[in-house]
Design a protein that fits this description.
Largest sheet: 8 strands, mixed
Number of helices: 10
Shape: elongated
Number of strands: 15
Length: 380
C-alpha cells in the first residue's frame, strides 16, 4: 500500500497526492503534474531492491563455493547491480511508460470550468476602468447563480499576486488551453474577457472585411495581440460532441472575435437572421461540440462602460449579460437574453445621451451552428 505523499508544483506550492492518483492540479497556478510515471518508476526501483535483498539472503545461506557454482548470468547481473552506485542502478531500470494524455484523465473540477480575464492597463494612456471589477462580478455570478465551483474558475487580472495569473499574452494563451483541455460530453466551459479589443490586417484571406479581430493582453505592445484565428483554433476547434462553450466578450471590435461561422443579426422588433461569416477557406467550427459568443458590439464598433447600471464604471456588456440571466427566470432562451441585453444597453445609452439613436452599439450573438434562438434554452 502506498501512503499519501507530497508533490511540489513548478510554481513552488506543495500538494498532497492521494494513493493511486495519476495526476494532480495545483490550485494556485492550475498546472497539471503527471504522477503515473513517477509511481511506475518507484515501483520498478522497489522491485529491484527487493530482488537484491532476496539474493543477499540466498548468499548468506550457501557456502561460497556452491554460491559461485550455482550463480547464473541473471544472478551475476544482480550481484553487479548490487555493487553499482545508485546512478548506474537507476540507469539500468527500464524506461517508464509514457504519461497518459490529459484527455484520458477525469477533470478535477467536474464538468464546469471558467476563465475570466479583466485588464485595466494601469499606468497606460489607454487605461480602462472597471474591467477587473467585471471579472470579479462574473466570478460571483458563476459561483452563486450558475453553480460553478470557485476552484474551477481561473482569474487573470492585474490584482493577482501569482505571476501566472497576470493577463499577459502567454498566460492568456495558457489559460485558454487549460479551459478546453480534455473536454468531454456534458462539459460546460465559460470564457469572459473585459478589456481592449482591436482590429488588424487579415493575412490569410478568411475575413470578408479584410480585418482580423483581436484581444489585447496587458503586454500587447511588446508581445502582440491574440487574433481571432488563434482564439478559434485554441477554444473552438477542440470542442468534442456534447461539450459546450459560452463566451462573453466585453471589448471593442468584438463581434466576430471567436471567428464562429454564424452571426445572429437581430432587429429591434425581435426578428433575426443568421449571416454566414468568413470566406469558407478554413473550417471554423467545432469537433462536434457547441460554441456561443455574446459580444459587446460589431466588428467596426466600440463597446461602452457606463455608470447608469450600478453607479460606478462597469462594462455595459458584462452587467447586462449577468442582469439578463438573473431576471429572465428559469431556463431562458437565447433570444430572450439577447433581447434583454440589447434593451438594457439601449436604455442606458439613451439616458446618457438623451437620445434614442439607432446607431448605438448593441450585443451580438455568434455561434458554431445556426439554431432557433427563441426555442433553444440557455443553460450553463
Amino acid at each position: 500500500m502506498y501512503s499519501q505523499r507530497e508533490v511540489r508544483c513548478r510554481c513552488g506550492r506543495w500538494m498532497w497526492a492521494q494513493p493511486g492518483v495519476g495526476a494532480i492540479q495545483c490550485s494556485t497556478c492550475h498546472t497539471v503534474t503527471q504522477l503515473h510515471s513517477l509511481v511506475d518508476a518507484l515501483r520498478g526501483a522497489q522491485r529491484i531492491i527487493y530482488g537484491i535483498q532476496q539474493l543477499r539472503r540466498q548468499q548468506q545461506q550457501q557456502p561460497p563455493q556452491v554460491m559461485m557454482a550455482q550463480r547464473s548470468p541473471p544472478q551475476m547481473m544482480m550481484a553487479q547491480a548490487q555493487r553499482s552506485p545508485p546512478q548506474m542502478l537507476m540507469a539500468q531500470l527500464p524506461p517508464p511508460p509514457p504519461p497518459r494524455l490529459l484527455e484520458a484523465l477525469p477533470s478535477p473540477f467536474g464538468n464546469k470550468r471558467a476563465v475570466l480575464c479583466g485588464v485595466n492597463y494601469r499606468g497606460k494612456s489607454y487605461s480602462l476602468k472597471g474591467c477587473i471589477s467585471d471579472a470579479k462580478s462574473m466570478r460571483c455570478f458563476l459561483v452563486q447563480q450558475m453553480g460553478f465551483p470557485i476552484e474551477s474558475i481561473l482569474m487573470l487580472t492585474e490584482d493577482e499576486s501569482c505571476p501566472q495569473k497576470i493577463p499577459t499574452k502567454k498566460n492568456m494563451r495558457k489559460a485558454m488551453r487549460w479551459l478546453v483541455e480534455g473536454n468531454r460530453a456534458r462539459d460546460s466551459l465559460f470564457f469572459h474577457y473585459s478589456g481592449h479589443g482591436a482590429q488588424q490586417k487579415d493575412y490569410d484571406g478568411d475575413e470578408i472585411d479584410g480585418q482580423d479581430e483581436a484581444l489585447c493582453p496587458l503586454d500587447h505592445e511588446t508581445e502582440g495581440k491574440i487574433i481571432d484565428d488563434e482564439i478559434n483554433k485554441i477554444l473552438v476547434r477542440p470542442l468534442v460532441h456534447g461539450a459546450k462553450l459560452h463566451a462573453v466578450i466585453d471589448a471593442c471590435n468584438s463581434g466576430t472575435v471567436f471567428d464562429l461561422p454564424f452571426l445572429c443579426r437581430m432587429e429591434r422588433n425581435g426578428s433575426y437572421d443568421w449571416e454566414h461569416q468568413g470566406l469558407g477557406r478554413i473550417y471554423k467550427g467545432t469537433n462536434g461540440g457547441e460554441a456561443f459568443c455574446f459580444s459587446a458590439c460589431d466588428d467596426d464598433e466600440a463597446s461602452g462602460y457606463t455608470p447608469m447600471f450600478t453607479g460606478k464604471n462597469a462594462g455595459a456588456m458584462t452587467y447586462s449579460f449577468i442582469n439578463a440571466v438573473k431576471t429572465a427566470g428559469s431556463a431562458p432562451t437565447y433570444g430572450q437574453l439577447l433581447n434583454a441585453m440589447c434593451s438594457s444597453i439601449r436604455d442606458a445609452q439613451s439616458r446618457l445621451t438623451n437620445t434614442d439613436s439607432d446607431e448605438s452599439s448593441e450585443p451580438l450573438l455568434t455561434s458554431s451552428e445556426k439554431f432557433n434562438i427563441y426555442a433553444t434554452k440557455f443553460v450553463l
